[in-house]
Amino acid sequence: MQLPNSLKTPAWFQTLQFFNNPTGFLEKVARQYPDIFSGRFFAGQPCVFVQHPQAVEQFFHNERQKFGLCDNKSVQALVGKYALTSLIGEEHKRQRQFLTPPFHGERMRSYGQLICDLTAQTLSQQPLHKPFSAYGMMKNISLQVMLKVVFGLCSGERYQQLKHLLPLMLDIFASPLFSTLVFFPFLQQDLGAWSPWGKFLRLRQQIDDLIYAEIASRRARTDPERTDILSLLMAAKDQEGQSMTDQELRDQLMTLLLAGHETTIAGMTWGLYWAHQKPEVGEKLRQELDTLGDSPEAMGIFKLPYLTAVCNECLRYYHPGLMIFPRVVKEPVELLGHLLEPGIRVIACTYLIHHREDIYPQHKEFRPERFLERKYSSYEFLPFGGGLRRCIGEALSFFEMKLVLATIMSRYQLSLEEIQPVGAKFRGFTLGPANGVKMVLTQRRESRKSLQIGVFS
Fold it and tell me: Torsion over CA of 328, 330, 332 and 334, rounded to 10 degrees?
């Protein structure tokens, strides 16, 4: 089968280059093939990679007719067969109908104060003038947000157990070794409790037991006043009046945890890094935040133009996902002058799209102003994917990212521990800062004791 612009190196060497230096490898390939190329660095399977907005537009517009979701057994093994990322057709549409209302932007308002309070509480426990990992701190904040906003747990035995077990499982995902287990299913072997996959399976079972116990407890004692996402999902009905099953609920919770958690952490860490690596960015952020006074509303923070631009530029520069889940060609289709036959896998490479010089001049410069100067189409800037499978947790992720950065930048003074630029590497199946970004908390701003979120109408 003839594929467009095939890389000439052996599949094993492509794989080695990709996992060792993903961004450098992709950029090197793009210099030779700027719009479309074919590679074999995902378990040796041939894939066509597109990084031109025209191809991405065609890709999304023909998602139902000409492109289908690949049978991704690795994803199912991680999050379950009812996870939104694994479903197609009417079942995918049904699950999105369940999930969309709890993640609507208006719903996010009720979580604003909680996110700010959790951030402030975490920073208050960090000693002054002692180096810490910004990535680790953001992971701690995001985990607490996940437990309280998504799972609806604030105290009790299940809360404590999940608070202990979830980081252990996420740490497995963050290791470079687990990257190979995700992309190469044949390595997913249970060789005992000390093997990576065996350890994951045992942790997952303990977490599953806690999730199912919490679901059973909620079903036994319904509380219409609860606003956490699990409770909202349990109360939702489809067009036939059916509720989600226990397994459907569990699989969606695992999807939110594993697919959305790491990407949000990476985005927030990069935000903190760039705000201090480029002091003028941090100063502009603080000046903008100061215009809201001491009691800004959550949506007021969310709508701040420069804060939004900084978050967008973070997600552009080092997109955590690198690329969108692969699709498979269902019927012959032409992309950028190349005929693709049924069965070929196609991947839109987000990272390369976000680093096209013709769209983002001086793309290697972190410059939030570009998002104030121009509005990019959904085929040029796609941090949460696009089309029928756009990330369902986009609103919560972006909301959390903005409020956490706003709380830290308005209340604390930090500095970078290292002056060397920080690069990106794989942390599990997402792209994150290579060294976790080492920082030091130098001052707490007593003059502004709390970032209070105003009352909403």
Answer: -50
For residue 411 the two structure tokens come to 């209340």
Q: CB under 8 Å, gap of 24 or more: what pairs does 316-319 form?
A: 316/354, 316/360, 316/381, 316/383, 317/270, 317/274, 317/354, 317/366, 318/23, 318/266, 318/270, 318/351, 318/424, 318/431, 318/433, 319/350, 319/351, 319/354, 319/383, 319/431
Supply the pTM of this predicted model.
Answer: 0.90
List the chain residues with pLDDT less than 50.
Answer: 447-450, 454-457
Buried-exposed string 302-333: b where 16+ CB fall within 10 A, e elsewhere:
bebebbbbbbbbbbbbbbbbbbbbbbebeeeb
| Dist CA 399 CA 42 (whole Å) | 33
Sequence-distant (6+) residues with CB within 8 A of 278 are 366
How far from 180 is each of 16, 42, 77, 166, 406, CA to CA, in Å?
A: 11, 9, 14, 21, 36
Residue 428: helix, strand or coil by DSSP?
A: coil
pLDDT tens digits, 318-363: 988 888 888 889 899 999 999 999 989 999 999 999 999 999 999 9
Residues in the chain: 457
Domain ranges of the chain: 81-319+354-444
Residue among 28, 60, 54 at smallest CA distance from 41: 28
CA 385 to chain centre: 10
Tokens 């077990």 belong to which residue? 165
Q: Which string of DSSP letters, residue by residue, matches 15-84?
A: HHHHHHSHHHHHHHHHHH-SSEEEEEEETTEEEEEE--HHHHHHHHHTTTTTEEE---HHHHHHH-TTSG
441 phi and psi angles, rounded to 5 deg: -85, 115
**Second CATH level (architecture) for the domain 81-319+354-444:** Orthogonal Bundle (1.10)
Query: Distance (Å, rounded) from C-alpha 229 to C-alpha 10?
Result: 46
- Indicate the burial class of 65 (C-beta count within 10 angstroms; 0-12, 13-18, 19 or more): exposed
Of 165, 194, 438, 403, which Cα lies nearest the Cα of 302?
403
